[in-house]
Each structure stands twice: as structure tokens, then as C-alpha cells.
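Our collaborator T.R. sent over the components below with a one-line note: 'Predict the complex.' Nothing else. No constraints on interfaces, no templates requested, no preferences about which chain binds where. So this is a plain run: every listed entity goes in together, and whatever single assembly comes back becomes the starting point for the next discussion.
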Amino acid sequence: MTKRPLILVTNDDGISAPGIRRLIGIMNKIGEVVVVAPDRAQSGMGHAITLNSTLYAEEVFIDDGPQKEFSCSGTPADCVKIAIREILDRQPDLCVSGINHGSNSSINVIYSGTMSAAIEAGLEGIPAIGFSLLDYSWNANFEGCDNFVKTITENVLKNGIPQGIVLNVNLPNLPKADIKGIKVCRQAKANWVEEFDKRKTPQGKDYYWLTGKFVNLDGGEDTDEWALENGYVSVVPTQFDLTAHHFIKDLNTWNLND
Amino acid sequence: MTKRPLILVTNDDGISAPGIRRLIGIMNKIGEVVVVAPDRAQSGMGHAITLNSTLYAEEVFIDDGPQKEFSCSGTPADCVKIAIREILDRQPDLCVSGINHGSNSSINVIYSGTMSAAIEAGLEGIPAIGFSLLDYSWNANFEGCDNFVKTITENVLKNGIPQGIVLNVNLPNLPKADIKGIKVCRQAKANWVEEFDKRKTPQGKDYYWLTGKFVNLDGGEDTDEWALENGYVSVVPTQFDLTAHHFIKDLNTWNLND
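Returned assembly:
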């Protein structure tokens, strides 16, 4: 590529999170970087968009890197929309989201702001990747991520991704030397078993905190959960056509029009 | 069925919206109804969940129907979680969400709080259906919906739905006599072309309203958009395994571990 690729960077932990700062550093070596990211943490926002409230996006200067950066009051999906329509003067060659502090493997993909940003870019025909590290802490160590993020990104820039697909990449929380490599996977069948921590307000009214336990229901060795548990980086090609095509034939045997 | 089915009803427009009131009326004729719905409109929330804030759910009495009702401060997905874990004393036989004021056809499914509630129930192994009427107004006329909602619901109770699938039902905004029937469809390939309405605050700072135009990119006659435009109720089987299985083989040819 003679011209450096234009790379849009976003996330859902907020523009100052260590994970996105690391990702910006990696992307600065690959292309021209524009960051449009939420001004605060947006975790668990799923594919929310801001319909009933106003949005702002303003240029900010956080470090002395060559990237341009905009802090946005919206959700991750909003950030991608506003970047494409208002901030960038041409379609980006790539959108990367993350590096998320915490897993977006398996069923977590549907709750994930990180992945919703990647999907929003994918909807616009932009190759897109969500990156997540299996460590929820703010002080997570992203050192082991660099080479894997770089390799996957360069492959996407070289090979492209078909329309309708984005990549969901999760990295195990291991020292670089202990990571065995990259595995292409399917999304494991798993579930959250929620437990509500029920408390009383000082005024005596019941309220709840949502907590839960992740349960992997899938014994397959071709899943993202298996890869991560066994020391691999997982790459799941993820689509936003949610049609269960295999069930259409059965559904047509129902007596819906009698 | 000798015992009346237990039906969980929720939505994303809020517990007092005309669409859910209509749905409760229909479901009261089919089974024992428990409503757990957001205390206010939650449209565009996607599959958001409340991780960093507290939740409440309290019993309310809105009309003189036989249903039990709980108003919840959370998102549609939160409502289903709290219903299953804290409110209901057994697993419901069915979860219905809606009737949404406005379309959740095509790509709208990924932004939809209505469908996120249905998917959340599906994750728990509960047969689930999201219903939406193609009229965004609060005064939408739901009269044409009754028989179609009843037929689809009774078919789901009779036939079941395989694990991993929920139904996304959209109803055209037409008088009952003009609706031609029910069509099983796939999700149309479509997109929103956003336009940001840029304004200035009284203090002179830029801000935006998100607006947009829906663009159907899909000429197929087997899509939900086609069905709705041609006077049919659309039923799309919708899955939450987002893996693009057809792309795994190609992805394995990439040089990810060189």
C-alpha cells in the first residue's frame, strides 16, 4: 500500500482507558490514526444509540502521538456514526475497537459496546476488528497484546474481510511468552447465570445489583472459550445478519395462515 | 395444555405504552401473565444491561386486568433477567416483548431493545417473540395486530422453538382487512444513512442530533422488508450465535501464526 491506511480507533471503556491508549500506539505504526471514543466508560451498552438526547464530539489532546482525537458524549456505536458522517473526510480503511478491559468472547459479544462499534463500522462496509483482553482491571497488562494485534490488523488490511463480517478477537491474560498463537474459532454456547444482590436503601426500599457467573455450556474444541482457556488468542468471524436460515424451512410448515 | 402457560411480557417503550397494554390484553386470553417492563422508554438501547448502577423493580397496578405487573428501572434485558431470577417462581413458558411502536425489521434488530429482551429470554431457553408495529407514534393503532399476535403466539406454544432461536415479528401499519397474511422471511440487508443535525448551544458550543434515513439494499422477495412493503406480517427466526460459520475456512488460510 503506497498510501498509509486511515484507521478509526474507538472503544467502550472511554478515551482515557489504558486499553485504547495501547491500541492507538500500535495503530500509529501501521497507519494514519483518528480516534473517536466515548468520553466515559460505556461497558454493557450493547448496540445502544442515542436517539432521545444530544451528542457532542470535541477534539482533545491526551498524549503527544501523531493521532487526531475526538471525545464523544455518545455510545460506541454513536462514535462510529459521528466519525464517519461528521469528522473524517474520507471512509476509513479500517476500524479497530478496544482493547477492551475484559472478555467479549462467547455470548458476551451481544452485550459488548466494543463489538457494537466494530459492527457499526462493518455495516458501513468498513473492515473492522474488536480487540479484548481477558482482564477487567484498569491496570490490566496489555504488553502481551502488541504483536497479536499487529499481525491480525495487517492481515485484515492485506486480505480484506467480506461484507457483513467483522472480527471478534479476544486475548488471554497471559505473559506474551505463554501465548501459544492465534486460533480461528466459533462463538461458544455459554450463558450468564445472574445473581441479584438484593439490598435496602436507607429509606427501606428494595434495590438490586446485577452480578453473575459465566457458564460455558459448550464442550467443543473449536470455540473461543476453548482457545482462550488453552492459551490461544481467539478470532471469531462475527456477522450481523441474525437470521437463523436453517430454521426457515421448518417455520414454513407451521399453520400461520390457516 | 391442561395448565395455562406462564407468559412473561416486556417491552422497551415502557410499561405504560399503548403497545404493551395491547399485548397484555391479548396474552391474558392465552395464559397467566406477569409483566416486568421498564418504567420509562428505552428505545435504541440495543442489548444494554445495567452493570454500574442499581436496579429496582416494584409491583404496580395499571389497569384492572388479571396480570401481575412490575415496573423496573433497568433496560429490557435487565427486566428479563430480574423477572427470571427474582420475580417469577418458575421458568415462564413464553416471553413476549412489545408491541413496539416502530419497526424492528431488517438491521433494526441489532439496535432493538424489544428484540434484546426476547434474545435474553432465548438465552435462558425460554421460547420468545418480539412484536413490532410499523408506526412510531404513541397513538399507533394496534387493532390490526390482535389476530396475528394470537396466531403466532399459539403456534409457538404448540410447536416450540429450537434452542438458540427467537422470533422477530413485524406488522405492517395497515387496517386488518388489508393485511394479506404472515410470511416467514430472512432479515433484509439494509442500512441507516445517518445525518447529524449540527446545532449550537446558547453558549456557542457545537452539538448534534442523530437523524437518518433507512436504505434497503436488498432486492430479494424473501426478506422482511419485502413482506412488510407488500402487506404481510413478517416473521424472521433470529439467532444469537453471531459466528459467520461460512467464513471460518477462508480465515484459516490467513497467515496468522507465521
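Summary for T.R.: The helical segments of chain B are 18-28, 76-87, 113-123, 146-159, 224-229, 248-251.
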